[in-house]
Amino acid sequence: MLEESRLDKEFLSSIQKKEVDYEVIFQKLYQGVVETNKLIGIGLEDIDKEQRKKLIETYYQLRVEEGKEVQEAVENKDKENLVKELIDVLVVTGYEYYLQEEEIFECFVNEDSSLDIDLQTFIGSVSDYFSVTVTLSNVQDALTKIDCNLEKVVEEVLKSNLSKFPTLGELKHSLGWPPTDDIVFDEKVLSWQCKQIEHGGRYSGITAEKVVDYEGKESLCVTGVRKNTVNLNVNISNL
Fold first, then answer.
1. Which of 185, 186, 188, 194 lies closest to 166, judged by CA?
2. Are 69 and 85 contacting, i.e. CB atoms less than 8 angstroms apart?
3. What is the pTM of this model?
4. Is the pLDDT of residue 42 over 70?
5. Phi and psi at residue 199, in whole multiples of 5°?
6. Between helices 115-125 and 49-75, what is the axis angle to 10°?
7. Pairing with 184, which of 38, 154, 175, 177 sits 20 to 30 Å away (CA)?
8. Distance of alpha carbon 237 from the chain centroid
């Protein structure tokens, strides 16, 4: 008979299934979305009142589109795509909420509802312009009830969003340039950067130029237009 004292409790603890802190996962997602949008020039500090109004309308339209994708995934019984589309809903609606309220959505999870009710409520209300909070709540609840590694999927989404914007170091490496901290204002670098962003499929008309701030610091400014009318304005020196 195996003696209890001989069991390695530290080992057993390390392999025990951990409770998932969904609120932390969702907060990380929303914070990552806010930081990414700051990077591409549509943070609250980068836009005026009129631009903000247009952005909210844009994100509302994106919310409706993502709702259709969710419904399609359910109809196709495509679990993997359903999880992806639900997270995409949180990405766009989370920032829509941030634009409206100037704060990140406070997460809370309702474990008493069922998955079918969560999804039915979401699909039935997603096109309502004022259903931002309801949308976020229902989608969060639905994701906690689907058998998936939510933390891993969220990490992949955040990495995917950031990967659309190559760093200056990546630009230099692709051209065989030395990995220094100096910014190189070279036509090849600018051309490659513009093509890489356009290749992502989300932006068009990408241009780049050298800019100098009031302190005389030089940087590269990449601008363009997103297909859903959101402007892109990236300062390469900050990447």
1. 194
2. yes
3. 0.66
4. yes
5. -65, -25
6. 130
7. 38
8. 22
Q: Which long-range contacts (CB under 8 A, 24 or more apart) does 78-84 make?
A: 79/146, 79/148, 82/146, 83/143, 83/146, 83/148, 83/150, 83/153, 84/153, 84/157
> CA–CA separation, 27 vs 21, rounded Å?
10
**pLDDT digits over 137-184, tens only?**
999 999 999 999 999 999 888 887 765 554 545 444 544 555 554 555
pLDDT of residue 213: 58
